[in-house]
């Protein structure tokens, strides 16, 4: 089955989430597509925030919060030495704190959620900063419904059918992210887990 990629973008980093909430409020029931969307924020400084469901995987990445543990340690050491040389004991304290902060941001991130880099770069190019978007990677009928829900809003729509190679690349970039939840079940959590694992 072919998959469609749809992106509904808005000006402003909070606009997509606000438009989604407004659209959901107008609907008498919860459509399937609304549980399959992801949200993108593209900040003026270039950082992306990705949250929600992307092609069946749950993603929660905030590039602005990436921290380098190794960079922090190196920064503390360098800052302490420089601070001590320039200003004695007071410089030691200031240099240690300043060096740690700088190192944590400039070093290679070591503590972060896995970022689906090929997908992130595609989204960075598609969503103008400062802006936000709602993304759906699903079958054509779900995409049709999602786009119709934002008809008449101040948004721009991009849509394409993913080739098998593009779909495989998206899935490969999301492999490190966990599978998205299917949502609550009236049968209860234990029944859902039993159906997923099969008979013992």
Identify low-pLDDT runs: none
Alpha carbon gap, first and last residue: 32 Å
Number of strands: 6
Multimeric state: single chain
Query: Which term fits the overall shape?
Result: globular
Our Rg estimate from Cα atoms comes to 22 Å
Integer count of domains: 2
Mean pLDDT: 78
User: How many DSSP H or I helices?
Assistant: 6
Strand order of the largest sheet: 4-3-2-5-1-6
Largest sheet: 6 strands, antiparallel
Helix content estimate:
40-55%
Structure, explained:
By secondary structure, the chain is an alpha+beta fold. The chain has two domains: 3-65 and 116-197, no CATH class; 67-111, no CATH class. Helices cover 45% and strands 22% of the residues. It contains six helices and six strands. The protein has helices at 15-26, 69-106, 117-126, 140-149, 164-174, 189-197; strands at residues 3-11, 37-42, 48-54, 57-62, 131-138, 156-162. It has a six-stranded antiparallel sheet, with helices on both faces.
Summarize this structure briefly:
This protein is of the alpha+beta class and 200 residues long. The protein contains 6 helices and 6 strands; from the N terminus they run E-H-E-E-E-H-H-E-H-E-H-H.
Annotate the secondary structure layout.
Elements (H helix, E strand, L loop, with lengths): L2 E9 L3 H12 L10 E6 L5 E7 L2 E6 L6 H38 L10 H10 L4 E8 L1 H10 L6 E7 L1 H11 L14 H9 L3
Antiparallel strand pairs: 1-5, 1-6, 2-3, 2-5, 3-4
Keywords summarizing the entry:
globular, 2 domains, 200 residues, alpha+beta, 45% helix, single chain
